[in-house]
Design goal:
Layout lengths: L2 E5 L3 H13 L3 E5 L2 H10 L4 E4 L10
Parallel strand pairs: 1-2, 1-3
């Protein structure tokens, strides 16, 4: 199973995409801000990061 890290501050967008990706067989890790996303990325094995470019605490660029 491939693991995705989805970093998005909008709870509704995170929930909708998580459900869709889990239905396709992916393990989805979530973070609601950049700092939390960096922490998760450093402690988990992640195959792909989906990143919101406009986070409140860090730039996605």
């Amino acid at each position: 199973m491939q693991t995705l890290l989805f970093i998005e501050d909008d709870r509704d967008i995170r929930a909708a995409l998580r459900l869709a990706l889990e239905d396709e067989g992916y393990k989805v890790l979530e973070a609601n801000n950049g700092a939390s996303g960096l922490k998760t990325f450093s402690t988990e094995t992640v195959d792909l990061v989906l990143l919101d470019l406009r986070l409140p605490d860090l730039s996605g660029f």
